[in-house]
Amino acid sequence: MSNHNNTRLRPRDAAAIVERGLASRRASERRFKFFGRLAIGIALAFLVILFCVHFFKGIPGFFQYYVTLEVQLDRGRLDPAGDLSVQSLYDGDARGVIREALYETVGASGRSQKRAAGKIVSVGAEQRLRKAVLAILIFLAPANLSPLLLMMMSTPSCGVYLARDTAGRTAHR
To answer: What does the pLDDT look like over 127-141, one tens digit per residue?
Structure first.
């Protein structure tokens, strides 16, 4: 039924065959351990790089700088409807007024210089200007509002704080 060859391996030959197999198995095990350690090392290196990048990009977020500009309060541009309403102030060109004051202050003339100067101003600068104008309105509200506001709006300038964080977070429109 079965065809057995009665040739048996001697123990020495069997040990040599097993030893050769064990040597290649040990070599593949060493390679496997090496590549596993290499992969873990690469992953840890990328993790350290990731943490460092986030840390160094996040540090400037803890700092904020302020610039004070003299801004011309042009009623025609800030209040296009002329009714001194909040909606009219939002419809006005507060951004343009701020940028003109900035360009004049830093002396920006070309397009690239204006673009670089425009990055100084934060997104909230327009809102700060509107709040300053609204504060003037509220301050003058008890008296006859329109003539006093006209007088106030025709004054040469008003100091407004413009903020920008150092991380470079500004909106470019």
So the answer is: 888 888 888 777 765
Q: Do 137 and 34 meet the contact criterion of CB atoms below 8 Å apart? A: no
Q: Is 107 left (phi over 0), alpha (psi -120 to 50) or beta?
A: left
- Rounded-to-integer distance, Cα 131 and Cα 139, Å: 12
Distance CA 162, CA 36 (A): 53
Q: Contact at 8 Å (CB) between 73 and 158? A: yes
Does residue 75 contact residue 153 with C-beta atoms inside 8 Å?
A: yes
**152 and 136 Cβ atoms separated by less than 8 Å:** yes
pLDDT of 3 strictly over 70: no
Alpha helix ranges (H) inside the chain: 11-58, 75-78, 86-91, 94-106, 111-118, 125-140, 145-153
